[in-house]
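# nightly structure sweep
# worker-07 picked up a monomer target from the shared queue
# config: single-sequence mode, recycle default, output format = structure tokens
# input follows
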Amino acid sequence: MPFSSLKGEKAFQRIRGGRPGRGRYLTVRWFPLRPTAYNPVRVGIVVSNKVSKKATVRNKIRRRLREILRKMHLPPCEMVIVAQPESVNASYWDLLRDLTHALKKSGLVQ
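# output follows
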């Protein structure tokens, strides 16, 4: 599924009122988009300095989450994924399981 990056403060503020879902390693908020001919999933991934002071660790978490999203089939939506400090020690499979769980809790996937 193609997805693009969510950019700009206004886009992130709009999703604050979206539907929440939380797992052990991640917090997810999403907002549905109107169906059109081509509506990609727009995703913002937030991994703050509170997670790790090292940029390499934060980027590793970001890359893993992007790869997980690439393999998922999601309806058109805008989504923000916020990594928790516990995600530093999480494996790819832990993040996959946790993201799926958070999306189910939020009602985006079945």
